[in-house]
Amino acid sequence: MLFLLRLAARLPLPLLHALGAALGWMVYLCSPRYRRDFKRNLALAGLSDFRRAAVAEAGKSVTEVPAVWLRPFARVADLVVEVKGWEHVAEGARHGKGLIVVTPHIGCWEIVGQYIASRIPITVMYSPPKMKLFEPLMRIGRSRDGAMKSVPADLRGVRATLKALRRGEAIGVLPDQVPGIGEGEWVEFFGKPAYTMTLVGRISEQTGAPVLLCCAERLPRGGGYRFIAEPLLAPRPPESPVRALNRSLERLIRRHPEQYLWGYNRYKVPAGVLPPGAR
User: For tag attachment on the chain, is the N or C end more exposed, with fewer CB atoms within 10 Å?
Assistant: First the structure.
């Protein structure tokens, strides 16, 4: 498997994205459950007009992974050909309290940490994949040249990220993953309650580290990526910081709706968590 992935990593990015578009449609047409979730999530956001493009982009998020994980570190960073908002990263890092980078499942989220690591150290949290076969590969791809470290999204991982912030480094979190019991709260995401992590706000409050929303937009025809960094929206009283986080994600997603991972079941109820409105 690793041999085949290394071969795939050598393919040009335009070809990988073309293959990904075909894969996206194959999965969409062959999986009724995936297709149902995909359509429902787009409809909730009022973005159904972007369905065709979003199906293809979802496939690209899979086939681009070998290039991002297995190419030499410097060549991966070079795939970012445009940068917007790096001044926010530089300003956040300048204060010495570390930097919290939240990266939703939009565009090529795998390259965000790699690009930041090419300029400042970053520790990223991850949830182990369902297929254990891919976990060693994930660790290889997300641990680069000592500048990028990968830690599991558990208590050990939280401790590791706190240590990184105390060193004045950056940490990376995927904010739209559904957290476990006791780690989130029900707040609206495109008008429907979604169990959303509270970790980002807790760590920021505890450490004083600023929070930035970052993504890597795919450019047309495999032309590379545009790195984007911007501050989170401030809460509107009596709005909670968690709702402000989701509102920030919504704003970013509406700017790039075809590149969000709409097939992910963002509204599922985790084991042991009461559904919204239940007492």
Answer: C
Q: Do the Cβ atoms of 42 and 35 come closer than 8 Å?
A: no
Cβ neighbors of 82 (< 8 A, separation 6 or more) are 219, 224, 225, 226, 227
Q: For residue 96, give both structure tokens.
A: 């010495």
d(CA 262, CA 266): 9
Structure tokens at 273: 């968590």
**57 CB-near residues (< 8 Å, 6+ apart):** 21, 24, 218, 258, 259
Q: Which residue has the tokens 């062959």?
A: 30
* Paired tokens of 62: 């899979």
Task: For residue 119, give the 3-state DSSP assignment.
Answer: coil
Q: Looking at the whole model, is its pTM more than 0.90?
A: yes
- Which amino acid is residue 118, in one-letter code? S
Collect all residues with Cβ–Cβ distance below 8 Å to 220 and sequence separation of at least 6: none
Residues 6+ apart with CB under 8 A from 19: 11, 59, 63
